[in-house]
């Protein structure tokens, strides 16, 4: 199913061939954002903190999309004054992916302050660049709710993860009890701050947010990219450390390629103010194990898992599915296909 080409249902707002900025181009999500934008017919300028360490990106995208379509530039300090003045020059759209990457955070206020400074710098630079027509911000589904398989929950565009903020700020909870609540709190507060900037500054460009949940799917360059969620699936396959299964509980998933296509579609929205959940369907690690067993029946040493339950969250899938269809993809990539392609990518390294 995923082999469907990118085909716009309507002429795109940003003409094909235009230059798009993608921050954090070396990560799992960022690299697929670049890949899908190039596949759609755009040129891409990707930013990384260290260009020398990420030179493999230029080779990767030249091999996949030809010469002259991808440009790599270095932004070592995302929050430095003027850090984004040069990267935004001449770009028609911005996909902002880079941000807080540490899952376990000791100082929430410091992390929020650093991220807001970086994002406000990027937004200010975008506002000053007349060519920018669209800005797509990457948040997280965790900015809207805390997944809990034991609690039925309804999530809407207006949902915010107040629970995570309360937990992160509770002086009576230990770091172990807080878990990843501080990370969720940072994601929540930073997204809220960006919306406040939009309300205050009223930029000429459209501003919309993508909120992916647990990201599955293939790693474009498994020899050079960190494992991310793929590391959990890899450990289930190989019988490695499974402690992350208690942290990333049963919830919704999205294939990273679908996320990339959401960026392509969201860049071309005529409306502003959308929060688009990247939620294709529910998953559990037990289901992931079952899929791996069916894919590799010759492997007899899979470690059986405890029952991790099944998510009971209802969230909005109509809006993101409409965006996928606007770029020629009728349905979400299935969990089975996503795990298959993910496993093949890490086994090829």
Automatic annotation (TrEMBL):
Gene3D superfamilies: NAD(P)-binding Rossmann-like Domain. Residues 20-269 form the NAD-dependent epimerase/dehydratase domain. GO terms for molecular function: oxidoreductase activity, acting on the CH-OH group of donors, NAD or NADP as acceptor. Keywords: Oxidoreductase. Pfam families: Epimerase. The keyword Oxidoreductase applies. Belongs to the NAD(P)-dependent epimerase/dehydratase family. Dihydroflavonol-4-reductase subfamily. This is NAD(P)-binding protein. It comes from Cercophora scortea.
